[in-house]
Amino acid sequence: MADTEKEKDKAELQEKEEEQIRESGQLLLDENEKKKRIHLMSIIGEIEGHENLPNHSKTTKYEHVLPKLASIEDSSNVDGVLLLLNTVGGDVEAGLAIAEMIASLSKPTVSLVLGGSHSIGVPIATSADYSFIVPSGTMVIHPVRMNGTIIGAPQTYDYFKQMQDRIIGFISSHCRTSKARLEEMMLNTGMLTKDLGTILVGEETVKEGLINEVGGIKEALAKLYTMIPDKNIDKSKDAAI
Fold first, then answer.
1. Catalytic residue (one of 119, 127, 131, 172)
2. Between 108 and 23, residue with greater pLDDT
3. How far apart are CA 7 and CA 86, in angstroms?
4. Which residues make Cβ contacts (< 8 Å) with residue 68, sequence separation at least 6?
5. Sorting pLDDT into bands at 50, 70 and 90, what band is 26?
6. Of 12, 26, 82, 161, whose CB count within 10 A is highest?
7. 154-173 and 179-186 are packed helices; what angle lies between their axes, rounded to 10 degrees?
């Protein structure tokens, strides 16, 4: 009878995990030998802001991510956060909000860029305490774009410049790349045939100072384990007087 109950509980847990992956691309990794509880969060597709994207689009919804990050910060059941990124970018305000939340977490964070982390995905990748990119991973740095009606007035261009400065300021404060170099890569005219900007692949992101290291899931998890304090601290010395 007890075995039947255990199997039922295990099946329910597995179903819950699968639903969590389907709905939000998130999962708690807690079966490792290190006994560390890692929250895995994926940032994929296009980062959705205040407007809903078409149903056929792969999106990351910031209204799902922000409460989850707050829950992670408040939880004693999470030791660290692993971010998997494969995003084309998206809404600037939503992307910066996610990046700021990640950067302000007290829990150790590691990001891993897989297929790509483009546009507003760049500050999200750099917002973690430590960052990795796979050898074939890409990052695209380009100026801010805006959809919809644009009013041709000086205030509009000032707003664009202010938004771009916010992005550059955030990235430069969370990696080893200077503001001047970021702006230079943003306004590069010699790489993208139909746009301004720069594409960096794998090791190039490390050389430019955006990403800490080239590696995959093994290296990312190993690094995160080392960043999590050991809870099994011997308190006998503190007790002795």
1. 119
2. 108
3. 35
4. 24, 26, 41
5. confident
6. 82
7. 130
**Cα(138)–Cα(170) distance, rounded to whole angstroms?**
19
* pLDDT recorded at residue 15: 55
Host H or E run for residue 69: helix 62-74
Has 64 been annotated as catalytic? Answer: no
What's the whole-model pTM score?
0.80
DSSP state of 208: T
Bridge partner list, 77: none
Q: Give the tokens for residue 1.
A: 């009878």
Active-site choice (39, 42, 127, 142): 142
- Residue percentage of the chain with pLDDT more than 90: 51
Pairing mode of beta strands 109-117, 59-61: unpaired
Three-state secondary-structure class, residue 212: coil
Q: Is 131 a catalytic residue?
A: no
